[in-house]
TrEMBL record:
Catalyzes the oxidation of 5,10-methylenetetrahydrofolate to 5,10-methenyltetrahydrofolate and then the hydrolysis of 5,10-methenyltetrahydrofolate to 10-formyltetrahydrofolate. Homodimer. NADP(+) binds at residues 166-168, 232. Pathway: One-carbon metabolism; tetrahydrofolate interconversion. HAMAP family: THF_DHG_CYH. This is Bifunctional protein FolD. It catalyses: (6R)-5,10-methenyltetrahydrofolate + H2O = (6R)-10-formyltetrahydrofolate + H(+); (6R)-5,10-methylene-5,6,7,8-tetrahydrofolate + NADP(+) = (6R)-5,10-methenyltetrahydrofolate + NADPH. The keyword Ribosomal protein does not apply. Belongs to the tetrahydrofolate dehydrogenase/cyclohydrolase family. Residues 6-121 form the Tetrahydrofolate dehydrogenase/cyclohydrolase catalytic domain.
Length: 304
């Protein structure tokens, strides 16, 4: 058996096309486009690439996107003041602080300055509490993308056993809660989990979110399982020359293809969906805050 590839690029393109249409209707109705502010502190090259991508795709669906670039030497209080000002500004719909922040800056304290109504990354205590309580709110983008990809692959997820590897605040924990909200039976595995391979092998849906290149082997995967690989790892690629690198996930993709029923590639799987979900959250935040009717996204033409 060769696993079906779950195409995150095509899925995110479908969601973004629907969002583009929805944004055009909002602009027609209310004469203003939702506006995302991205705060980038320091010169980290990976963060610069992520922010550029987010900005480009926000603009592509017709929203406004503004980057605020701040020096790595900024003080904690000056950064917090900047984020508080965005929280107060009525023209700002979404605030994203690109993480990680440079050493010496306290990201928890900065995130606490984001108005939960504009928390498009779903990282504030209010957003986390709403997720835990099952109340409406803005959900973290990467785990939301994982659920969309799994649902597209399997349909109803109810009763499926989901094993998430990783318990971070950004991915693992919210992924567990979001799959629970789909009536899945959820296991959160992590660095102290015993017999990890056996735990993984019991999963109908396996969601590795560790940051360890190709740690999940084919022998860890139940035949026919759906694998949603969150990990993004840069590894040396000597075939492309000295110093060259390529991206791999947490799953040994080639061998996993022989066992899984469906699997996301890296790159081109969860990554593009994360940005599409960020754009979706920005539209949702704008509608909720400005009292606009929520656009209907059920019309998304998902790839077959
Ligand atoms: P993190 O370092 O905060 O958390 C990693 C988790 O993995 C921890 O909870 C830890 O318990 C667990 N872990 C570590 N070693 C383990 C081991 N040997 N066995 C089992 N569990 C182990 O990382 P994160 O922010 O949650 O990100 C995880 C991965 O997902 C990274 O590769 C990151 O780049 C990637 N990521 C991808 C996207 C995307 O859009 N695709 C978004 C966010 C993060």
């Amino acid at each position: 058996m060769v696993a079906r590839m779950i195409d995150g690029k095509a899925m995110s393109a479908a969601l973004e096309q629907t969002l583009e249409h929805a944004v055009a209707n909002l602009v027609k109705a209310y004469d203003v486009a939702p506006c995302l502010y991205v705060v980038l502190v320091g010169e980290d090259p990976a963060s610069q690439v992520y922010v550029r991508n987010k900005t480009r795709r926000t603009l592509a669906v017709g929203m406004r996107s503004i980057e605020i670039k701040l020096p790595a030497t900024i003080s904690q209080s000056a950064l917090e003041d900047q984020v508080k000002a965005l929280s107060r500004d009525p023209d700002v719909d979404g605030i994203l602080v690109q993480l990680p922040l440079p050493a010496g800056l306290n990201s928890d304290a900065v995130i606490a300055c984001i108005d939960p109504a504009k928390d498009v990354d779903g990282l504030t205590e209010v957003s986390a509490g709403r997720l835990l309580l099952g109340r409406p709110g803005l959900r973290p983008c990467t785990p939301t993308g994982c659920v969309i990809l799994a649902k597209h692959s399997l349909g109803d997820l109810s009763g499926s056993h989901v094993v998430v590897i990783g318990r971070s605040i950004l991915v693992g924990k919210p992924a567990g809660l979001l799959f629970l909200a789909q009536d899945c039976t959820v296991t959160l595995a992590h660095s102290r989990t015993k017999n990890l391979a056996d735990v993984c092998k019991s999963a109908d849906i396996l969601v590795p979110a560790v940051g360890c290149p190709e740690m999940v082997k084919a022998s860890w995967i139940k035949p026919g399982a759906t694998v949603i690989d969150v990990g993004i790892n840069k590894v040396a690629d000597p075939r492309k020359g000295q110093g060259a690198a390529r991206l791999v996930g947490d799953v040994a993709y080639e061998e996993a293809l022989e066992v899984a029923g469906a699997i996301t590639p890296v790159p081109g799987g969860v990554g593009p969906m994360t940005i599409a979900c960020l754009l979706h959250n920005t539209v949702l935040a704008a509608c909720a805050r400005r009292g606009w009717a929520n656009p209907d996204l059920t019309a998304a033409k998902w790839p077959t």
